[in-house]
Design goal:
It is a single chain. By secondary structure, the chain is mainly alpha-helical. 47% of the residues lie in helices and 5% in strands. It is built from 15 helices and 8 strands. The strands form 4 sheets. It has a two-stranded antiparallel ribbon with strand order 1-2. Strands 3-4 form a two-stranded antiparallel ribbon. The chain has a two-stranded antiparallel sheet with strand order 5-6. Helix 2 packs antiparallel against helix 3 and helix 6 runs antiparallel to helix 7.
Length: 434
Amino acid sequence: MTAPGATVVAVDEFEELAVDALRWLIGAAREAPGGGLTWPERPSDAESEPMLYSGTAGNIPVLLEAWRHFGDDAYADTALRAARSLARSVDDIEDDSLYFGRTGLALVLRTVREQLGDEASGTAADRALELVRNRFDGTRWGTLFELMGGNAGIGLGALLAGDADLAVLAMEPYLRTAEPTPDGVQWAHRPDTEARLHHVSHGSLGIALALARVGADTGRADLTELALAGAADFVARAEPQPAGGGEAGEAGPGPDFLVRHSTPQFRPDVIEPFSYGWCHGPAGDAQAFRQLRDVTADPAWSALADRCWHTVTHSGVPRRLRPGFWDNNGRCCGTAGVLALACDRIAEGLDVYAPEGFAHLLATDLAARATRDEDGARWSNVEHRATPSTLEPHVGWAAGNAGIVRELLRFVRLTRGGDPRYAFTWPDQPAVPA
């Protein structure tokens, strides 16, 4: 699984690949009891998943994306069928979070109501947010206390679903739980570990991203100020650069920006100290810096996002340099997540699309790694510590077809000079203008 080098793929071929991947995704759907469609995380799984991260809720946005992109109502009809089953999951799911629970369902159902006019989806979204509010214990909703599984994600999701009061309710506990550090503040992502995670998905930077957005949109300056304190701690953790910012041989700022996964290292037996994707690396850090740029209008955040991008583009991604390095094609920790940032930069005029450019390299790598047959197209990730190391293809947003197709379709539109906006704006990826 190596990158295909200088191969140039025509934009129409990427679009055809996306169509094949949509066919496989839709083919993996299951008829739900009572009507509608559901999806498992993997086709071999016995149970379907409703969650945004890897289940039905995360597949609906790519169906809306395909509907907008192709103008084919069949994709909208499939999204509606999925929304009907998702609405019935609102009372059954045990988790309240954005990526793993009820808040994610509410946000997707609200989007279906807004885009497809389905009143039942809107009613189910209201019900979901009411349940989330009622299950708040005054500080948190569960063990996790970050963006993917905790308060920060609930705050972001509630804000975008139209419930600003719930968003503020979710974010206020960070004011009293922040841990002062020499350079700012940080938070524990869960109460049962001494490790402090740093990046967007489970770390303090993801909390800062949510605080910044909710604070700005609701006029809560205290939340915005706390976001800046959290971001300041994160920035201070950047690894020193060899010779570049000062006298010869002296460490300086340099062009790169790289922060360790956690301090002390969380689960060092299975997690490497450095990563480069959305979840725990500079591809996600740059998204947080874009949010802080939009909130503060401070060019320092743009400069940090540029340094993140320099780090990613000089890291070796998307080549598989060694076992364990870049074994994932997906949106959460793989190539599709980096492609999302590449397209954001093109849309904002920070980079220029070119067939030999980095965005094209990423899309071409995805095309090279796809498995295609009469069932459609899909992607297998790799776990070098497992036998066999090639994993079963995933269906959903995080590691599978839904997340990859979403980015391929947007990439196609950008190369044709089309609208860079998504049909569904992911809460932690700041939108670009039309």
